[in-house]
Amino acid sequence: MALINEMTMYCTVCGGPIEAVGNFPRYDESPSWLADVLLLYLPSTSEANQTPQLLRALNTCGPYFLLPTTNALVTACDNPSFENKFNPALYFPSHASCISIVKKAGVSQHLSSDDVLQALWRAFNSQFQKICSKQSTIRPLTNLLNAGGLADLWHFRELEWRWGNPGTEVFEADPLDIPNLTATLLDNLRPVPNPHVSPKRESSFSRNRQLSPEPSYTRPANSWKGDLLSIGWLWDLDAELVLGKDSLERDAEVAPKETNGGKGGWDWELLVRQLSQPEVLEPGKVLVDMPLKLRNRRRVWTLVEDILSGGEGDWGG
What we know:
The chain is of the alpha+beta class and 317 residues long. The protein has helices at 96-108, 113-132, 144-147, 181-186, 225-229, 239-251, 268-275, 292-308; strands at 9-10, 17-18, 37-41, 53-61, 64-67, 72-75, 92-95. It has a five-stranded antiparallel sheet with strand order 6-5-4-3-7. Helix 1 (96-108) packs across helix 8. The longest helix is centred in the middle third of the chain and has 20 residues, at 113-132.
């Protein structure tokens, strides 16, 4: 596990630490997801309306990154200097997994790849320039989010990171690769409590909007399966498992019975509404005993939504 100290560099998307390659006992080992880094930068500051680019990089120590394609050493989160060959551009480092989630969120919001990178650049650069406008700022910054007082589990507020501290284990879990994701979520299905319950006014479903946690029961329960499969941060759900759950369990006579026009059975609506809550996976909240990787994905997705929202809150500059 990486050594965390005052020189540790942190991801500009999720606020978690970036592992330095020097901490690996052997260089032929596959790096952890915390060491797989992409640098966001503008190729040239002399041309207008440029699209930011991404570069694969290895963190050597603190804000210093090696570019494997050129063997160049560059400094992240520092103003570019034409006199310093190690600082030709302004670079913002992020975990490659976090950038993948950013791209998934962009697709969910119907944004192009260029629009997503532009939104990231505007958010990071605005925050960086705001911090650097203070005379007491010492650059390069190793933690852009903490420097601005913006890092937290769900909101960008200050977080004191220590390996092994209660709560920080969520940050250490790879948010992309989640084994048994679909089965884990489907284990939280409950039967519709009463197929004759009086329906409430229904809220229309949106894949990027928080719903009321209370079911309306105005639609057949199974009709919510499609809504579950369209939740943006659950892009890798197994559609075959979701769509086939009732028929398979009905054959085994373990599925709840559907009555009243198909409004009985499993309460798919409740599960969808629970998963729309930002704090759904936090301890003591809506769903319990969720994998750390899934909790970290929901956390990162929430932060990314703030960034891609167009400048709300502190990211607006």
